[in-house]
Amino acid sequence: MSPVRAGIALGSNLGDRVNVLQKAKDRILAIDGVDLPVLQSPVYETSPVDCEPGAPNFYNAVIEIGFRGSADALLTHLRQIELALGREREHRRNVSRTIDLDLLYFDDLRCDEMDLQLPHPRIAERAFVLRPLADIAPDLRLPGQTATVRELLANLGSDQSIRPVTDKW
After folding, report:
1. Are 103 and 8 in contact (CB under 8 A)?
2. pLDDT in tens, 126-148
3. What are phi and psi of 15, to 5 degrees?
């Protein structure tokens, strides 16, 4: 089985955010079936979107890996990593968290199941995902999109604050 390209968004707004993102990335790279090379965006500091009042800013990044396995298997690994790094899943969406790992795309797979939507349904609305994704795959056309990631970002016109933090993580 040849590897598929899978995009993963990483986010954190609690604790030592860069360290948490690094630990999550290291654990992702240790998953059986992950192939190198890995594409990795810089880390960006972004204002929270639709979170509780007073929520700290997020650190966000995107990586792209090669993966020999199913999208469901990769999603299961990502959820296990979240739990291992202190994520509490029983909370509602858009609350502060130590780590958030979202499977953005899995080659050209389109999926609309309860636990897995591919490509991620809100990519085109989120500068905090599009900005780092544009750093590693600006010409990518996500399944169901006619525009590239670069074009989606340019057309977004978001007023969300995005500031580069580091490209060494």
Report:
1. yes
2. 999 999 999 999 999 999 999 99
3. 80, -160
- Provide the pLDDT for residue 93: 62
- Which pLDDT value is given to residue 89? 63
Question: How far is Cα 95 from Cα 38, in angstroms, rounded to an integer?
Answer: 29
Residues 80 and 27: beta-carbon distance below 8 Å: no
Query: Hey, what are 64's tokens?
Result: 């792209």
**Number of separate domains in the chain:** 1
The CATH number assigned to the domain holding 60 equals 3.30.70.560
Q: Which residues pair with 106 in a beta bridge?
A: 6
Measured CA to CA, the distance from residue 65 to residue 83 in angstroms comes to 21
Domain hosting 34: range is: 4-166
Closest among 137, 140, 131, 139 to 165, alpha carbons compared? 131
Amino acid letter for position 136:
I
pLDDT at 158 over 80: no
- Distance in angstroms (rounded) separating the CA atoms of residues 144 and 65: 21
Number of residues assigned to the chain? 169
How far is residue 64's CA from residue 40's CA, in Å, rounded to a whole number? Answer: 7
Type of residue numbered 9: A
